[in-house]
Design a protein that fits this description.
Layout: H1 4-16, H2 19-26, H3 30-44, E1 49-51, E2 56-58, H4 60-91, E3 93-98, H5 100-111, H6 114-119, E4 122-127, H7 130-135, E5 145-151, E6 162-177, H8 190-193, E7 197-200, H9 206-217, E8 223-227, H10 231-239, E9 244-248, E10 259-262, E11 270-278, H11 284-299
Parallel strand pairs: 3-4, 3-5, 7-8, 7-9
Antiparallel strand pairs: 1-2, 5-11, 6-9, 6-10, 6-11
Helix pairs in contact: 1-2, 1-3, 1-4, 2-3
Length: 307
């Protein structure tokens, strides 16, 4: 039988033009390359090189063999890759990147259920902001799936090899200190909020730009008393009476007492949640996880995952 290693060496000899150059490229000695080519000639019964004291010139048979060898080696690489993927499937580990507020809400509700335990999937979780988890999806990255959010149309980009599935929208709510005396569900307009102190995102971020445009369209020019990109910290500061904040509903599930959430008609904003993965075919592990996640998010009134 023909040794694939010898075929790969043949391709390098033809491409580089000499045994010595091929040896250097492959990490062999020139003598080892010569021995491999002699073995290939014996296995195939073909004369592949016209040898002299100073050179080894490939024959037409060598050129033809190299042409077919390229396809054979590509098929072998595909075979090995498919086998590796099947082996990975059998381990039932799902490497998940997820942003903090979704992790805090969804994962405790998922991991404690009998339905999840019966699936036998082991989660390896990376909790980080979307920009960090997307890096883990690049070729050779450490993630199988990344759950990310995007506010508006900008601020987030991913490689062309990544497929995107919309999961649902996480609506923002206006949060006020309860000490201000405004009752939950009270009819409050954007004008009434204009003179109040606000906790806002740091300027220059994509979220801050979108929120700034929204507020400007409502003629709302907030008096900023704090800049904060951490929703948990914003909620605690609001509970302490520092100011109002705009917070997504997922981040409010473990919010402190002492805050009031309002639905201000003029302030309509949501962050879209997406599932990202390499390629466009879901593995069994990803599909099963997404099925479980859909039920959990439905309970939070986030629109169910589209199929």
């Amino acid at each position: 039988m023909v040794n694939p290693v010898h075929l790969r060496t043949l391709l390098e000899v033809i491409r580089l033009g000499s045994f010595t150059a091929a040896a250097s490229r492959l990490g062999y000695t020139a003598s080892a390359v010569s021995q491999q080519m002699s073995a290939l000639e014996r296995d195939t019964g073909a004369t592949l090189f016209e040898r002299s004291a100073r050179s080894a010139i490939p024959t037409e048979a060598a050129v033809v063999m190299a042409r077919h060898a390229a396809k054979v080696l590509t098929d072998i690489d595909a075979l090995l890759a498919s086998t590796a993927r099947a082996e990975a499937e059998s381990t039932q580990e799902l490497r998940l990147g997820i942003f903090p507020s979704l992790a805090t809400y969804a994962l405790p509700r998922l991991l404690g259920t009998p339905e999840w335990r019966r699936l036998g999937i082991s989660l390896k979780v990376y909790v980080a902001e979307p920009g960090q988890t997307i890096q883990g999806l690049r070729a050779g990255g450490e993630l199988d799936l990344a759950l990310v959010f995007q506010v508006g149309q900008g601020g987030l980009a991913w490689p062309s090899s990544v497929s995107r599935q919309w999961i649902g929208d996480d609506n923002f709510r206006v949060v006020l200190p309860a000490a201000w005396g405004i009752q939950p569900g009270a009819a409050v307009s954007a004008d009434q909020l204009s003179d109040m102190p606000w906790i806002m995102h740091h300027p220059g971020t994509a979220d801050a730009t979108v929120i700034g445009r929204l507020f400007a369209s409502c003629n709302l020019h907030p008096r900023v008393v704090a800049y904060c990109d951490d929703f948990n910290a914003s909620l605690e500061l609001a509970a302490a009476g520092l100011g109002a904040a705009l917070v997504p509903e997922l981040a409010m599930t473990h919010g402190p007492a002492g805050v009031v959430a309002l639905d201000v008609p003029e302030i309509r904003l949501a962050r879209s949640i997406f599932a990202l993965q390499i390629g466009d075919k879901q593995t069994t592990r990803v599909r099963l996880f997404m099925d479980q996640l859909a039920g959990i998010l439905k309970a939070q009134s986030i629109e169910p995952i589209r199929r």
